[in-house]
Design a protein that fits this description.
The chain has helices at about 15-25, 50-65, 80-85, 150-155, 155-160, 170-180, 190-200, 225-240, 245-255, 270-275; strands spanning about 25-30, 35, 40, 45, 70-75, 95, 110, 115, 120-125, 140-145, 165-170, 185-190, 205-210, 215-220, 220. It is α/β, with parallel strands linked by helices and about 290 residues long. The protein has 2 domains: about 5-115 and about 215-275, D-Maltodextrin-Binding Protein, domain 2 (3-Layer(aba) Sandwich); about 120-215, Periplasmic binding protein-like II (D-Maltodextrin-Binding Protein, domain 2). Helix 2 (about 50-65) packs across helix 8 (about 225-240). It is globular and about 60 Å long. The protein starts with 15 loop residues before the first helix and ends in a 10-residue tail after the last helix. The relative contact order is 0.18. This is Amino acid ABC transporter substrate-binding protein. It comes from Paraherbaspirillum soli. InterPro entries: Bact_solute-bind_prot3, Solute-binding_3/MltF_N.
């Protein structure tokens, strides 16, 4: 199997479908703590909204390649290494909660967004923190490798409020920093904060607050050097959206009890922004 370097992409395109056909295996990069998009269930198996979408894509690839069987291999991803896994050919699809941004599109590609989030913060209920100005001279946990720090800096709030940023290794670590008093708030995408709050030992001890700082279109990440593979994935994502299969998956993970999380229910209706985006599916986003 040939794995192309980034420098070689100007001359040669990667053949992801060919690699999958040869190995009769598709490799999915997953996150272990991005509930409800991608996380580990009680049996340590990757599950979630994004995982279900990727399994639908895998089934379409199996049919396209006319394979009697297609194995699913999972590789764990972090905020730091998820792009490298795609660029180095160690994963065919990254199925987590990754925002499609212009900066990231210099290195990888994204298919049509399957969720739209906004950056807010998680705080302790008794902290009296309600919005960003309440963070003056306080510490804020931000997960390393995410897009959540830049909006704070872009609005000038870090300097104006004299904030101190504390890096978390992953979302669980950032929450632990907040939980143990190492930070006064944890800033990241609102849906991830609702998931962390819901699965905390004492959910009522935490609150998601703050005006949204950003619009975060989550999308499945794939190789930038194989336009044919991207075209196929985009086509299948469009079909999933137009056939309302994505609505059924949304209901399963955001509105109904989740067996993998002790039948917890997020009770998060689809936002107007996301619902509107599904009317005209496109991978073209403004970030």
């Amino acid at each position: 199997m040939l794995v192309l370097s980034v420098a070689a992409t100007a001359v040669h395109a990667e053949d992801v479908l060919g690699r999958i056909r040869e190995k009769k295996t598709i490799t999915i990069a997953y996150r272990d703590a991005a509930f409800p998009f991608s996380f580990l269930d009680q049996d340590k198996k990757p599950v979630g909204y994004s995982i279900d979408l990727c399994l639908k894509l895998a089934d379409a690839i199996k049919q396209q390649l006319k394979l009697p069987q297609l194995a699913i291999a999972y590789v764990p991803a972090t905020s730091d290494n998820r792009m490298d896994l795609i660029q180095n050919g160690k994963a065919d699809l990254e199925c987590g909660a990754t925002t499609n941004t212009a900066e990231r599109r210099k290195s990888v590609a994204f298919t049509i967004p399957h969720f739209v989030a906004g950056e807010r913060m998680l705080v302790k209920t008794d902290s009296n923190i309600k919005n960003w100005p309440d963070l003056r001279n306080k510490k804020v946990a931000v997960t390393k490798g995410t897009t959540n720090l830049k909006p704070l800096e872009g609005r000038g709030q870090v300097r104006a409020l004299n904030l101190k940023v504390v890096d978390g290794r992953d979302h669980n670590d950032s929450f632990h920093i907040l939980e143990t008093g190492g930070a006064d708030a944890f800033a990241t995408d609102d849906v991830l904060l609702y998931g962390l709050k819901a699965t905390a030992k004492n959910p009522s001890a935490y609150a998601v607050v703050g005006d949204p700082l950003t619009t975060e279109p989550y999308a499945i990440m794939l190789s930038k050097t194989d336009p044919a593979f991207k075209k196929f994935v985009d086509g299948e994502m469009s079909r999933i959206i137009h056939d309302y299969e994505i609505n059924k998956l949304y209901d399963k993970w955001f509105l109904k009890p989740i067996p993998a999380k002790d039948n917890f229910t997020l009770n998060m209706p689809m936002s107007y922004l996301f619902r509107d985006s599904l009317r005209f599916p496109t991978d073209q986003v403004g970030n």
